[in-house]
Amino acid sequence: MIISISDSYKRFGLSAIGFALITCSSLVLNAQDKEPPLTRILFIFDASNSMNGVWEGKPKIDVATKLLSQALDSLRGAENLQMGLRVYGHEKNYLHGQDCDDTKLMVPIGNNKAGAMKSALKSLKPKGTTPIASTLEKAGDDFLKCPTNDCRNIIILITDGIEECNGDPCAVSMALQKKGIILKPFVIGIGLDLEFRESFECMGSFYDAYNEKSFSNALGVVISQALNNTTATVNLLDINDNPTETNVNMTFYNRNNGEMIYNLVHTMNNRGNPDTLQIDPVYTYRIVAHTIPPRIKDSASITPGTHTTIGIPTPQGSLEFRMQGVNPEANKLQIIVRKAGEMQTLHVQSFAEIQKYIVGKYDLEILTLPRTYIEDVEISQSHTTTIQIPQPGVATFSKLGHGHTTLYQMKKNELELVATLSTTQERETLSLMPGQYVAIYRPLSARESAFTVEKHFKVTSGTSVAVRLNQ
Q1: What CA–CA distance (Å, rounded) separates 101 from 91?
Q2: Each residue of 83-93: pLDDT tens digit?
Q3: Contact present, 292 and 299 (Cβ < 8 Å)
Q4: What is the pLDDT of residue 78?
Q5: What is the CB neighbour count within 10 angstroms for residue 325?
Q6: Percent share of the chain, pLDDT over 70
Q7: What are the CA-CA distances from residue 110 to residues 69, 114, 121, 452 (Å)?
Q8: Residue 209: in which H helix or E strand, if any?
Q9: Of the candidate ranges 291-295, 419-423, 467-471, the one whose mean pLDDT is the lowest
Q10: Which band of pLDDT confidence, cut at 50, 70 and 90, is reported for residue 253?
Q11: Rounded CA gap, 411 and 406, in Å?
């Protein structure tokens, strides 16, 4: 056998409230006529006693309610958007004892709720403790059954303190995400000590608001990210780390719960560069490039408001098969492809197919009769490896009556099983690879082993041989 190797995305640049003017209508992916999902945002607002604290000369509660109210005003009339408000720490004074159930859904999630939410914010008087974990757990029930076929449930938590009721907000958040109840929450920390940052980063996307301006900016970014797609490019990298690979299906999964979000076939644009994708920035993605074998980007975050480039090493070469001579049956052959030295099947390639594989060495099992095995076939970057096999010959077996017939190939004076012929057909034809063979036959009616017939014959490419088992 012969083996031959024959554009960047413009930043939003908007003020915090300007961010909110961008509506959910931009959630349509690519140019498909796809109904955008219904985005449901539950704001969780900290009204615990610590929000009475002075922050840049003003009570934190005043700054937070003012800026959130402005953002709510800008969201009036936004398409495909529902909102609600849950508050904690506002009903029982901490001086009368810690109440870890002090959490309430003040405005249920629904349409046109900006006015009701603003009124609820104005009525708040910070009093109590900070039961973040139990609040998140109850928030999971605030998202009633999705009224459409597709909902994006998002929590935006605004707080100035950490959990005070021995709960585990990170565990609750992850459980809600894995159940598919919510997407990754957003947390805006108001004047928090840096030592508390890790307590919130494990919950979701954390934004540190160290002053009023940074709070305003963080709120704008979070709302924009909750409502809009941004752009990304996936570079499928060759062996030289150049983005030249393409035409590969890519599956984007929600890394937190395994939900499949997008299936996109990688494409080069008319300038020969990887296509720009519209991607929801809320998720952290696990991206699978369906090469053979697959290549995986375990964690990819999309930066809202800017263009994100994601690189996945996928160096590939091609594998093709040819047969000497003319044989119309050749295209029916199949080839089992495995990584060199491994038994797991990666792909079953048809003889007529030219298939790409990740560069490396592979073992081939060609389903000829008998099977043809080729080990350590090298696939190189951007090259086509051609496997050429000889044309089979044809052997016709004729028997005198019914009988047991077994066909073997002679290899180094050893017999290797090739096929068992029919006991009832008196004439059979097989396509066999070139080589030395032995057919062993005994009539069904014979009651002695001495009636066994042994026939040695040779098969040559492109020729026929008659094997008579009655002599």
Answers
A1: 10
A2: 999 999 998 88
A3: no
A4: 85
A5: 10
A6: 92
A7: 17, 10, 17, 86
A8: strand 205-209
A9: 467-471
A10: very high
A11: 16
Looking at residue 5, its pLDDT comes to: 28
Residues in Cβ contact with 184 at an 8 Å cutoff, skipping those fewer than 6 apart: 177, 204, 205, 256, 282, 283, 284
Please confirm whether the linkage preceding 293 is cis (ω < 30° from 0): yes
The residues facing 158 across adjacent strands are 45, 188
Separation CA 261–CA 179 (nearest Å): 15
Locate the DSSP E strands across 273-425.
Answer: 276-279, 284-289, 295-301, 308-313, 316-323, 334-339, 345-350, 355-358, 360-366, 372-379, 384-389, 393-398, 403-411, 414-420
Distance of CA 150 to the CA centre of its chain: 19
Q: Specify whether the CB–CB gap between 312 and 232 falls below 8 A.
A: no
Residue 393 exposure: Cα atoms within 13 Å on the Cβ side:
16
Question: What order do you get walking across the sheet with 284-289 strand by strand?
Answer: 260-265, 249-254, 284-289, 295-301
In the sheet that holds 186-190, the strands lie side by side as: 103-110, 81-88, 38-46, 151-159, 186-190, 205-209
First to last CA, the chain: 35
Q: Which residues contact 57 (CB under 8 A, 6 or more apart)?
A: none
**Would strands 345-350 and 205-209 be described as parallel, antiparallel, or unpaired?**
unpaired
Q: Which domains does the chain have, with CATH numbers?
A: 13-227 (3.40.50.410), 230-313 (2.60.40.1120), 316-389 (2.60.40.1120), 394-468 (2.60.40.1120)
CB 116 within 8 A of CB 43: no
Coil vs helix vs strand at 366: strand
60: Cα separation from own chain's centroid: 42
Q: Find the mean pLDDT for residues 367-392.
A: 96
Amino acid 307 reads: H
